[in-house]
Amino acid sequence: MSERAWLVARAVVLLLATVLRVVALGMKPLHHDEGVNGFFLTNLMRQGRYAYDPANYHGPTLYYLTLPVAYLADTLHLLNTWVLRSVPVLFGIGTVWLVLTLSRRVGRVAALTSAALVAVSPACVFYSRYFIHEMPFVFFTLGIVVAVLRFQETGASHYLLLAAGSAAMLFATKETAFISVGTLGLAWLSAFVWEKLVGGGRGSRNARTRRGEEVGGFANFRASGQATAAIVAAVALFVFVWIAFYSSFFTNWKGVFWDSFKAFDIWKETGMSEFHSKPANTYIKWLVKEDAPILVLGCLGTLVALFERRKNRFAIFAAAWGLGLLAAYSLISYKTPWLVLNFVVPLALVGGYAVQALYDWGRAEKWVRMTGHVPALVVAALALGLSLYQTFVINFREYDNDQYPYVYSQTQRQVFGLIDEVEQMGARAGTNEPGIAMASPDYWPLPWYFRDNSHAGFEGHLSTFYDTKSTLAVIGKEEQLPQLQRVVGDDYVRVGEIYPLRPGVNLVLFERRDLAPK
Q1: Coil, strand or helix: which one is 144?
Q2: Could you tell me how far CA 269 lies from the centroid of its own chain?
Q3: Residue 467 in contact with residue 55, Cβ under 8 Å?
């Protein structure tokens, strides 16, 4: 592949990843968790208040990384769902870019195929369009791998610092970082042991260059005379990032010296509890239904990496990384679909390696040399085509249909009808901030959509009386309907039938009689 073709191909993959992540980004209503995260962000932005709580919604990085973008948008009165989700979008695109940087380890065909698989993966696209911690978490995990490999090749101290910074950001993003880091270590050990036991190692696609760079990289680092200082700086950077984020930038020391460590105990209890508990084969079933191309190619790539004559240590490592995380999360009782991102990305790397092996085989065989690239292109095209179709369905058509595994307790699109009706009622009352009483105990993500309404109250229970002067609308749960009708009496009238919030939660709306639509 010429350098020009390689640059164009990379640009096409990144453009495809960008388009799939930004088009109609606000079309899907915020999930319950997105609404809570948005609430934390707006409190941080408008009141300067955020204190890490180990029992609540993971680490602080998501909010602080989004803060500059959200603050600027809020200043310009442009804060919306698109802005909220823009940071996960950027990390999703960044993950595709990081995969492309691994071409020296697996080959350009493999890197392009792997990056394209991540670019169009239903899981990767769906959760890149989601304001939760998972996409930054996967990016920082892959960032550790890329930085360590570059340090191994070059011995340059700044790559060691990048690895330490990525690790610190990983731990500050989500408490499950210890699972990812532990699996990375075991995957490296597995690749090393397998290569030693079976033999035939080449480490990368250019054995002579790779061996020279490995020796040269570490030799350069030791010979630089700055090795000790670089290691101390890397440790200091890790500690500084950890302290800065968990202390809410030096304002909440309890978050550093107690809460950041207590999170591991809480997660251990949650992981083995019945909360979100599912059978061990759940992730396999979800992958078969939504990301089958990556799963199948990843398994084929694993077989190639393990049994090819000249072993590629990185390919073996990536296989052990992906399958190791799949096994680890399958053994844990707690299962949610966004966790598949942790093993989808390394499995995509190994899947790309399978396509590279097929490409190399076709080019090497004399009788197919003229058309040797065709089998690899056909396999890649079929895999990408199927993933792209499934991505279109789940992200742009059935994004709130819980028959699809990744659509997990998703807010229903009909909630926009409720929001629009409340805004129209406010217009009829001549105010942008109509008084709203939320009687339903289930109401997230509505606080995000009513974030600019200081008269919206989210009590989460039914009151015995509503003042018609201050309360223009009451929103309750369908199960509360008989009691709600008795409380509001003749002063309010029901508008619409039901407004589905998420599966199993239906809301009803009562408006003051004189403001209800005629």
Answers
A1: helix
A2: 23
A3: no
Mean pLDDT over residues 120-127, rounded? 98
Q: Average the pLDDT over 317-332 and give the result.
A: 96
Q: Is 229 exposed, middle or buried (0-12, 13-18, 19+ CB in 10 A)?
A: exposed
Over residues 155-181, mean pLDDT = 94
**Owner of token pair 């199948």:** 296
Residues ≥6 apart with Cβ < 8 Å to 39: 447, 448, 451
Q: Is residue 286 a contact partner of residue 406, using CB atoms and an 8 Å limit?
A: yes
Check residue 277 and give its pLDDT.
Answer: 78
- 29-41: burial string, b at 16+ Cβ within 10 Å, e else: bbbbbbbbbbbbb
> What DSSP string describes 359-401?
HHHHHH-GGGGGGTHHHHHHHHHHHHHHHHHHHHHHHHTSTT-
Helix, strand or coil for residue 200?
A: coil
Q: How many secondary structure helices (H) and strands (E) does the chain include?
A: 22, 5
pLDDT of residue 368: 54
Report which of residues 272 and 79 the model is more confident about. Answer: 79
134/138 Cα distance (integer angstroms) = 6
Compute the distance between CA of residue 45 and CA of residue 117 in angstroms, rounded to an integer.
36
Note the pLDDT of residue 226. Answer: 83
Asked whether the beta carbons of 356 and 110 are under 8 A apart, the reply is yes
CB 181 within 8 A of CB 167: yes
Nearest to 97 by CA among 156, 138, 63: 138
Whole-number Å distance between alpha carbons of 318 and 159: 20
pLDDT higher than threshold 80 for residue 38: yes
Banded model confidence at residue 366, pLDDT cuts 50, 70, 90: low
Average pLDDT over residues 304-328: 94
Does an H or E element contain 301, and which? helix 292-307
Give the pLDDT mean for 96-107. 96
State the average pLDDT over residues 492-514: 95
Beta strands (DSSP E) in 142-216 are: none
Beta carbons of 447 and 478 less than 8 angstroms apart: no
Identify the bridge partners of residue 500 per DSSP, sorted by sequence position. Answer: 506
Q: CA-CA distance, 206 to 184, in Å (whole number)? A: 23
Tell me which residue of 89, 159, 164, 168 sits closest to 129, measured CA to CA: 89
Tokens of 372: 């040797």
Q: Report DSSP state, residue 292.
A: H
pLDDT of residue 349 exceeding 80:
yes
Q: How far apart are CA 511 and CA 11, in angstroms?
A: 52
As a three-state string, the secondary structure of 459-494 is: CCCCCCCCCCCCCCEEEEEHHHHHHHHHHHCCCEEE
Residue 369 CB neighbours (<10 A): 11
According to DSSP, the residues that pair with 506 across neighbouring strands are 500
Single pTM value for the model: 0.92
Reduce the DSSP state of residue 121 to 3 states and report it. coil
Tokens 């164009």 appear where? 8
CA distance 415 to 418: 5
User: Does 244 score more than 90 pLDDT?
Assistant: yes
Q: What is the pLDDT of residue 373?
A: 79
